[in-house]
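Renewal narrative, Specific Aim 1. Our central claim is that a sequence can be written position by position from structural information alone. The example that follows is taken directly from our test logs and has not been curated for this report. It begins with the structure tokens describing the chain, in the order in which they were read.
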């Protein structure tokens, strides 16, 4: 039930790391249904707008300013509905225009913790509807003795140490990989591949922008010329991808691709879109991997496509092992699926107290 006086009584909330992101997880019944009331509450919970998010839970970066709202699924064939909200750090904006494959890793364990799905022993399988995109994912994770296990041997780049593995599989849908129907579009004089294998992304060739591919996120963020050029392409790509006016949206994500340097498939630097990702998102990696697999796409000339096994997508802090399958149907349309390995961890469970007003 939504608290009548959340400022004094607090709201039940679990803080979790999901993959390489961190966010506040709520049961749908504990937050307002009305989008404007919900937005106001989440801004006050996370401490936005403020570059430091000093008065809230947010970690002053888009990767740590995220929210998941969870409920039993309205679809009888599925278990859980997962709505993702990106709380913008320095603007009074909460966006539902994208999903997040990293917070997705925490959804199954959270659903078990809150008693929304029964735990199996030794593993639990949860079928999840990604409300933002309509996609469906299946998560499988260890629940020995009926409780999620957060300890284990799985390491993912961008997270220190090891934790219990969570397998995520995106169901094959009917969505085309190429929203414009073209393997390459031309935008502002650049070749661009516009692809969506779970996350809308735009693939660009790094050297056309004076980027070699081994820059740190901070180096790229400190180049206003580069940010402007990438943003100009993003606005046009958003329209072409059917996303409408994306100036205040967090999609599409922009990727500068370079030849692999560390034995992987391709080098990436991802603009998400104002900041540069310190690694790469789950569904972003699936979309990049699917993109460079299509002959003629940007990056396909220098990508090293594995004959089997995961596509190691290189990023600023290591590489991401995306397993993708792409296929061109008899109708000539490219479609794709993906599976990924992630980890997640419960950090705290309790009540969060929103600040009284924005
Ligand atoms: O692509 C970041 C992340 C993401 C999204 C963002 C994600 C994904 O790394 O699946 O997880 O959208 O800015 O968590």
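The sequence written for that structure reads:
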């Amino acid at each position: 039930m939504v608290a009548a006086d959340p400022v004094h009584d607090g709201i039940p909330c679990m803080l979790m790391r999901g993959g390489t992101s961190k966010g506040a997880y709520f049961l749908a019944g504990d937050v307002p249904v009305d989008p404007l009331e919900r937005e106001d509450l989440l801004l006050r919970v996370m401490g936005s707008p403020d570059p430091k998010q000093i008065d809230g839970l947010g970690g002053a970066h888009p990767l740590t300013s995220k929210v998941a709202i969870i409920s039993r699924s309205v679809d009888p064939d599925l278990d859980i509905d997962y709505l993702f909200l990106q709380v913008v750090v320095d603007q009074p904006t909460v966006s539902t225009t994208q999903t997040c494959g990293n917070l997705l890793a925490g959804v199954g364990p959270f659903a078990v913790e809150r008693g929304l799905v029964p735990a199996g022993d030794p593993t639990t399988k949860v079928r999840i509807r990604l409300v933002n995109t309509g996609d469906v994912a299946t998560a499988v994770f260890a629940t020995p003795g009926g409780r999620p296990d957060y300890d284990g041997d799985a390491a993912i780049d961008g997270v220190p140490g090891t934790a219990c593995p969570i397998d995520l599989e995106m169901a094959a849908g009917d969505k085309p990989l190429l929203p414009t129907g073209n393997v390459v579009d031309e935008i502002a004089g650049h070749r661009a591949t516009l692809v969506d294998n779970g996350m809308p992304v735009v693939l660009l060739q790094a050297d056309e922008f004076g980027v070699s591919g081994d820059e740190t996120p901070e180096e790229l963020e400190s180049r206003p010329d580069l940010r402007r050029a990438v943003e100009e392409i993003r606005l046009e790509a958003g329209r072409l991808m059917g996303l409408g006016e994306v100036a205040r949206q967090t999609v599409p994500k922009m990727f500068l691709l370079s030849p692999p340097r560390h034995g992987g498939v391709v080098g990436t630097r991802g603009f998400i879109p104002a900041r540069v990702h310190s690694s790469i998102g789950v569904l972003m990696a699936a979309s990049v991997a699917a993109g460079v697999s299509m002959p003629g796409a940007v990056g396909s000339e220098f990508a090293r496509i594995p004959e089997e096994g995961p596509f190691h997508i290189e990023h600023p802090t290591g590489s991401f092992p995306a397993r993708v399958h792409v296929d061109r149907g008899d109708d000539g349309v490219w479609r794709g699926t993906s599976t990924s390995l992630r980890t997640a961890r419960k950090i705290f469970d309790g009540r969060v107290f929103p600040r009284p007003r924005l």
